[in-house]
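Predict structure. Chain length: 94.
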Amino acid sequence: MDIAALVANTGGTLGLAIFAIWMLNKVWRDRLEKQEQVTEEMRGLRSETQSCLVASTEAIAANTEVLRANTEAMNANRDISRQLLEVLLAHKGG
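Prediction complete.
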């Protein structure tokens, strides 16, 4: 039996009460369905965010390694430059 027939057969206040309960139930089911959709979307976004965080962390680690290597190279160049300067100064003074 559908809701219209149930309301029509009971009539009056009872019919309105049945209709109101049916509508309330429908509204709550619709809200629950929407919330489940939102929850699924949030899970997907959370997964994407987690993937981006992992990729960013890996990129930062790689960049840190490159910066470390560059720093070592610059320090080596500085040491060579000092040695050359000392040789030039010793040669000029000698």
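Summary: The chain has a mean pLDDT of 90.
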